[in-house]
Amino acid sequence: MKKSFDFVGRLKTFLIISVVIMVVGVLMNVIFGTKMDVAFKGGTQLRYSYEVQPDLDKVETAAKEILGKDAEASLDEVNNTTVVSVTLPSEISTEQQDAFTQKLEKDFKDSKLTNFSSNTLSASMGMKFFLRCILAVVIAAALLLVYVGFRFRKIGGLSAGFAALIALVHDLLIVYFTFVIFRIELNENFVAVMLTILGYSLNDTIVIFDRIRSNSRKMDAPLAEVVNLSLNQCLRRTIVTSVTTCVAIGTIAVVALVMHIDSIISFALPMLLGSISGCYSSVALSAPIWARWLKKDAEA
What we know:
By secondary structure, the protein is of the alpha+beta class. It is built from 9 helices and 4 strands. It has a 4-stranded antiparallel β-sheet. It is elongated and about 80 Å long.
């Protein structure tokens, strides 16, 4: 008889692992804080196309000299074009933008810097945009909960939905802590990764619960045994899918790191760790938590 792994029996171990990761993430957040993009916190972002890559440290120094403000220069990928992005913590006037652009053109003649775009946003508007993005994630999570509850109503749909929601929250926190730990600014990519991981993680969870529902009809056995059998049957499929996804995303992340393209790194790296977390939570958390939940309800 083929040996199977006792996922339900090892739930305590899985929970300890997750709690430790969460504690580390919270501590890192307290120590380092959260970096936010101009789109969320307000400020000014100037982008310049170039022919020869300039020294980013010198670009930051030029911004300090002309604008009297600390700036952060980085490389971004915009519309298939690599540009130099200069981010300032506050709004600046059109005259200041023109003066800064003229200095860059003078100091970096070989680079042939050309103004690509400029974006200025007040702090209040940035915060409103951030809150709307978070609301979009919350609404998406709530709709997914309703969907799971309805689809698996014959095997305790509401409890299955809440178990899936716990796993989803776990994955979203992993994504958030990735941004914090690796000092990546929260930007539009943050919302895109969050919504993508919601769908990715839930897909695995639905496949597993579907197998549990199918096996529960065929087997006259304790729930824990049914859940463990279903998880072991789905394990290979889940791992292969996750490995394939991670290889693709990992390749993108490595290329972005080599090319120093921050806008792609800010998507690929959190997406990579979120995908790994989605595989882990679907197998080790959602179904085992659901099985323990129903067992306690039956004993009550």
